[in-house]
Automatic annotation (TrEMBL):
The keyword Transmembrane helix applies. It comes from Geobacillus subterraneus. Keywords: Membrane, Transmembrane, Transmembrane helix. This is Sporulation integral membrane protein YlbJ. The chain crosses the membrane at residues 51-74, 81-100, 150-169, 220-240, 296-317, 329-347, 383-400. Pfam families: Gate (PF07670). Residues 46-137, 223-319 form the Nucleoside transporter/FeoB GTPase Gate domain.
C-alpha cells in the first residue's frame, strides 16, 4: 500500500511540475525564447565543436582496440587504487581532457562492450566526469575573474577532489562483489597488451568507412541530446528568476552558506550555479561583499557539483546503458565538498605565496587571457557554427544512407 501511494505521489509530482513548466513557458514567452537562444548559442558555438572530436576519437580508439591495449597497461594502477579495470584509465583521462559528460559517455560505451561490470561502471562514472582545464583556466579564472593565477588553485582542488572521490567510491558495491569470482590481476606486460590490441581489432574488423560513419553518428546523436538539456535548463533557470522562485529558495542556500561561514551575498549565485555552472560561476565572480577566497571556495563547489544540467545529461547517458545514477549523484556531492576544502587548504601555498613571489612578473599570455572575452576561452566562435553545421549535415546524410541500406520489411 505504501509503495502504491509512493508511486501515485511521484506521478502527481511529475505531472504538476510539467504542467507548471508549460504554464511558465506560455506566461513568459519572450524570456523563454531569449534563454533558449542563449543555450542554443552556447551549444552551437562551443559545446558541439569542442566535444565532437573527443567523442569520435574515443569511438575509433575503442573499435581499433587501443583502449584494450591501454587497459592492460593501466591494470596494475587502476585495479588497486579504484577497483576498476585498466580501461577505466582511458575514460578517466579523456573525461578530464574534454570535460562533462565525456566520462559518462565512455563509461557507458565500455559497459556496453562488456569490459566493465555493473558495479565497476558505477564506480568509474563517479570520478571520470569533471570540468576540463580549458574551462577552468580560460572561462572561469581568466574570463570571469580576470585572474588567471586563480586557475591553479581551482584546477588543483578540482582534480584532487576527483581523485579523492575515486578512492572513496572504490568501496562502493564491495559487498555485492564478495560472492563473485575475482578478476585476474595481470602484471604490466607490453607483449600481452599488443596481442590484446590485435585480437580486438581483428574481432571488430569492419571497413574503415563503416567505423568512421558509426563513430560520427553515435557522437552527433549524443551531442544532440546534450544540446537539448543545455537549452532546457537554460530556460528553466531563466524562468526560476522571472517567477521569483530563486529569491524564495535562496534563504535555504543562505543557511547552508552560514554553516560553512560564507557570506549570504553568494546565495543567489550559488543557487543559479546548482542548475548551470557557467552562469553560476559568472554570477559568483561578480558578487560584492565576498572576498576572493570565499568566491573561489563557492566556485570550486559549483564546478565539482556540475549543475543539474550536466547531471541530467549524465543521467540520460547512463540510463541508456542501464547504469544507476544514484552513485554518480552522491559522488558529485562529495566532489563538491572535497573541492571546496582543498581550495581553502591550498589557497595559501598555491595562490597567496605564488602571487607574492610573481608580483610584477606575470607572463604576457596571462595578460592576454585576462582581457580576452570569456567565450573565447570556451572554443572558437568564428569556426564553431561552421563545424557544427557541417557535421549535422554529415549526420543527416549518414542516417539517411543507413536507413536506405536496411533490408525492406515485407
Amino acid at each position: 500500500m505504501k509503495r502504491n501511494w509512493g508511486t501515485k505521489g511521484k506521478t502527481a509530482l511529475l505531472a504538476s511540475a510539467a504542467t507548471l513548466f508549460a504554464f511558465a513557458l506560455i506566461s513568459y514567452p519572450k524570456q523563454s525564447l531569449e534563454a533558449s537562444i542563449r543555450g542554443l548559442t552556447m551549444w552551437w558555438e562551443v559545446v558541439f565543436p569542442s566535444l565532437l572530436p573527443f567523442f569520435i576519437v574515443s569511438e575509433l580508439l575503442i573499435s581499433f582496440g587501443v583502449v584494450n591495449f591501454l587497459g592492460v597497461l593501466l591494470e596494475p594502477l587502476m585495479r588497486p587504487l579504484f577497483r576498476v579495470p585498466g580501461v577505466g584509465g582511458f575514460a578517466w583521462a579523456m573525461g578530464m581532457a574534454s570535460g562533462y559528460p565525456s566520462g559518462a559517455k565512455l563509461t557507458a560505451r565500455l559497459y556496453q562492450e562488456k569490459q566493465l561490470s555493473t558495479i565497476e561502471a558505477e564506480r568509474l562514472s563517479s570520478f571520470t566526469n569533471s570540468s576540463n582545464p580549458l574551462f577552468i583556466f580560460g572561462a572561469v579564472s581568466a574570463g570571469f575573474f580576470h585572474n588567471p593565477q586563480l586557475g591553479f588553485v581551482l584546477a588543483a582542488s578540482h582534480y584532487l577532489g576527483n581523485i579523492t572521490v575515486g578512492l572513496i567510491m572504490r568501496f562502493h558495491g564491495i559487498r555485492k562483489e564478495r560472492g563473485q569470482p575475482k578478476s585476474r590481476r595481470r602484471p604490466f606486460s607490453l607483449p600481452y597488451a599488443l596481442r590484446t590490441l590485435h585480437r580486438t581489432r581483428v574481432k571488430n574488423e569492419q571497413p574503415l568507412g563503416k567505423l568512421l560513419g558509426d563513430a560520427v553518428r553515435s557522437s552527433v546523436q549524443t551531442l544532440l541530446m546534450i544540446g537539448g538539456f543545455i537549452i532546457l535548463f537554460s530556460v528553466v533557470n531563466q524562468l526560476l528568476n522571472v517567477m521569483h522562485f530563486t529569491e524564495q529558495l535562496a534563504p535555504l542556500v543562505r543557511r547552508l552558506l552560514h554553516l560553512v561561514q560564507l557570506p549570504e551575498e553568494l546565495d543567489i549565485p550559488v543557487f543559479s550555479g546548482l542548475f548551470e555552472i557557467t552562469l553560476g560561476s559568472q554570477m559568483i565572480s561578480e558578487t560584492d561583499g565576498a572576498t576572493l577566497l570565499e568566491k573561489a571556495v563557492a566556485v570550486s563547489f559549483i564546478l565539482a557539483f556540475g549543475g543539474f544540467s550536466v547531471q541530467a545529461q549524465v543521467a540520460s547517458i547512463l540510463a541508456e546503458a542501464n547504469i544507476r545514477f544514484q552513485p554518480f549523484l552522491v559522488a558529485r556531492l562529495l566532489h563538491g565538498l572535497f573541492a571546496a576544502i582543498f581550495t581553502y587548504a591550498l589557497w595559501q601555498p598555491l595562490y597567496v605565496e605564488t602571487a607574492t613571489r610573481e608580483s610584477g612578473h606575470i607572463p604576457a599570455f596571462f595578460h592576454i587571457l585576462t582581457y580576452a572575452r570569456p567565450e573565447e576561452h570556451l572554443g572558437l566562435p568564428p569556426y564553431g557554427p561552421l563545424i557544427t553545421m557541417l557535421f549535422l549535415c554529415l549526420y543527416i546524410w549518414l542516417t539517411a544512407k543507413a536507413a536506405s541500406e536496411r533490408p525492406r520489411r515485407s
